[in-house]
């Protein structure tokens, strides 16, 4: 799993989320806001479930 969860780490993951999703959070349309929320949440969740220091040469295990 991914190490310690901190506010700074979550903020960094949100900052790295796709731009369209971040812009979608402030959209007037409900469906675009919902899509943006889901994308940002998935991005943060996947970032938190990955190890913090992954060697570039190491292949991730499939499980």
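^ structure tokens above, recovered residues below v
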């Amino acid at each position: 799993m991914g190490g310690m969860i901190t506010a700074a780490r979550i903020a960094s993951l949100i900052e790295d989320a796709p731009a369209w999703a971040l812009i979608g959070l402030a959209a007037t349309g409900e469906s675009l806001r919902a899509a943006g929320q889901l994308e940002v949440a998935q991005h943060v969740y996947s970032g938190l479930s990955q190890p913090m220091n992954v060697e570039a040469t190491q292949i991730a295990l499939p499980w």
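The CA atoms of residues 12 and 28 lie 25 Å apart.
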